Amino acid sequence: MAGPEVTPSFSTNSRNRNEPLVAWREFPWWLVAIFVFLGVMTYLILTDEEVNQAFVFILPGITTTLYLTLGGFGLALVFGLLAGLGRISQNRLIRNIAITYVEFIRGVPTLVLILTLAFVIVPAVSDSIGINNRDVSIELRAILALAIIYGAFLAEIFRAGIESIPKGQMEAARSLGMTVRQAMQYIILPQAIRNISPALGNDFIAMLKDSSLASVLAVRELTQRSRLHAGSTFRFPEAYLVIVFLYLAMTITLSLLLRWYERRLRVGER
Amino acid sequence: MNEMIVIQDLHKYFGHIEAVKGVDLTIHQGEVVVIIGPSGSGKSTVLRCINHLETPTSGGIFIEGLHLEDKKTNINAVRAEVGMVFQQFNLFPHLTALENVTIAQRLVRKRDKAEAERIGMEQLARVGIPEKANAYPRQLSGGQQQRVAIARSLAMNPKIMLFDEPTSALDPEMIKEVLDVMLDLAKEGMTMVVVTHEMGFARAAAGRMVFMDGGQVVEIASPEELYNNPQHQRTKLFLSKILTH
What is the ipTM of this complex? Predict the structure, then answer.
């Protein structure tokens, strides 16, 4: 990041001697604008009765939203790692299975996938392994759907991360007698995961937003609760502005944390 | 003397290019062999075939009589006995110097933490940088990194050490500290195969020198014979080019 810019000037007027302490050119006006919006919404929630009612009704959905996101992302990390390793496997069968998974998922809209996974794939699989598909809760279906979809995206991130580690690392590990698996686990992956952690963070934020798609399964997360509220009270602006506020408050917090973490990573490399 | 490394009619293709065209070489216990030759002569490839970082296209490599191309040979067990030092050091950047030196001991030699650290510290002391045990590779100079890399290999108690141009990536003032460690190792009787153009080291340590060109061994001789009385025109030409510097 560039420091405060020193503007070259040939004049000797007084402004030069009083250089501004903040580089206004780099000032994050965008963040101010977002905070103004969040502030106005907070004010409305506290003062406006209609907005407050919408807020009180919708807010409990945040637990489900977080539950979907954390569960879905945790599983997606497992799927993504396995598929990412599969993508670079020497075994042609494993490699092709992994590529099929990734390309299949990437070629179909997320919403369509969620519906298909929840209402077609999960019942079919659960029946075939002898579980009554009614016993598979709709929340669990949503989590599985999100995990399978994001697993395909994370697979590409993991693959890129592993391939970004110089070949000499694997060679050094192997020359010391480590197996491929040991070298992956102790040498390659720790470095790869550190490199891709910002990308993983971005996908976590993306999943937080995409968890709203679970509302089509009638999972009572934030979006579904605001649809219910809007449907029963006809207070559409209140219902939808409240979830805009809630999603934005979460994503902007996470993305600021991520920026801070990325900067720390870069300093650590020096 | 025991035959430690036997290379029989080694051929290696990269695509359509034949990098090594039939190399035979036998290296005995305690011997220091220096391989020289122009770039692209196949010397690094021969070295990398010795611990199977490259798989020979045809021919055989035997380490203490174990045939590496035999499917029954446990290549990881062989590699634990054959240390390798790289031009680019290849230290593990996410681990401290001591962790670099202990991780393979623990995973491959199955030593417990205390023993691995004791041996690791011994080896770091041997290469002269015990005080850097807790430093990360990026905090070390090139010469220090290469010495940690040597310690990392030595901590496995290998019977053979391979060096692939260990000083080529170093600033001139750091070359000596690495060569000194290698010289000590040679004096202690380690079996070593070294690809290098450091003629001072070759003179001081090498029992035999191998001159390679175009994927073949052109000449094998003692350092004195090779410098003073090279038998082949290609050897003379190569030596005249590098010795004028």
Answer: 0.92
- Determine contact: A197 vs chain B, CB below 8 A: no
CA atoms of A9 and B167, how far apart (whole Å): 50
Whole-number percent of chain B with pLDDT over 70: 99
Q: B84 burial class (0-12, 13-18, 19+ CB within 10 angstroms)?
A: buried
For residue A4, the cross-strand partners are none
Q: Which of B166, B34, B196, B36 is nearest to B90 (CA)?
A: B166
User: Residue A97 pLDDT > 80, yes or no?
Assistant: yes
Average pLDDT over residues A19-31: 77
Cα separation, A233 vs B110, whole angstroms = 68
Q: Residue B19 in contact with residue B215, Cβ under 8 Å? A: yes
CA distances, A100 to each of A86, A107, A152, A154 (Å):
11, 10, 10, 15
* Confidence bin at A267 (pLDDT 50/70/90): confident
Q: How many residues does chain A have?
A: 270
If residue A248 lies in a helix (H) or strand (E), which one and from where to where?
helix A236-269
Whole-Å CA distances, B123 to B101, B129, B141: 8, 9, 18
CA distance A169 to B104: 13
φ, ψ of residue B10 to 5 degrees: the values are -75, 125
| Mean pLDDT to the nearest integer, A96-102 | 96
The mean pLDDT value for B145-150 works out to 96
Tell me the chain A residues in contact with residue B149 when contact means C-beta distances shorter than 8 Å: 172
User: How close is the nearest chain B Cα to the Cα of A177, in Å?
Assistant: 4
Contacts of B108 in chain A (CB under 8 A): 176-178, 182
Q: Calculate what percentage of chain A has a pLDDT beyond 90.
A: 78
**Does residue A21 have a pLDDT over 80?**
no
pTM: 0.85
Name beta bridge partners: B221: B209
DSSP string, A62-94: HHHHHHHHHHHHHHHHHHHHHHHHHHT-S-HHH
Q: Do A178 and B104 touch (CB under 8 A)?
A: yes
A191 in B contact zone (CB under 8 Å)? yes
